[in-house]
Amino acid sequence: MRRPEHFRPIFPRKRRAQVMLEREALLALGGSASSYLSELCRRRRERLAEEIGAIYCLYQEHGQEALLSAMQLAEQAGIYGADYLARLLVSAAVAPGVCLALPDVPTQAEVDRYLSSYETWVTVEAGLADSLLAARVTA
Fold it and tell me: Which residue range forms the structural domain that includes residue 114?
C-alpha cells in the first residue's frame, strides 16, 4: 500500500492526489471502513476532500481499531461525517453495541427516506393539472 506521507512534497500542487491516497489508506483498514466511506461519499460529495482529510487525521491520531469501532457505531446510528467520528472518538466509550439514543429525538433511520416516497405527494393527475392551469390563467 502507498503511504500518503511518502508523497507529502507533491500535495500542495496535487490536492486530488492527497485525497485519493488518504481514501485508499482508509479503505485498506477493512472492517466497516468500506461501507462507511461509500455512504459518506454519497451523502457528502460536495465536501468529500475535507471529510477524507479529517478522517485520515483521526486515523493517525486514534489508530485503526478505535476508528473502525467509531465507524461501525456511527454507521449503525446512520450518521456520516468526520465531525461525528471525532465526537465518538473523544467520548470515553467507543464500543460496538453502544446505542446513540437521545430522548425525544427520532433515530436517523426514522428520518431518512427515499425520494421515491414523495412521488405520491407530487404526482398530479393530468385533468387536475389542466384545470389548475386554466384557473390560474383566468385569475
Answer: 4-138
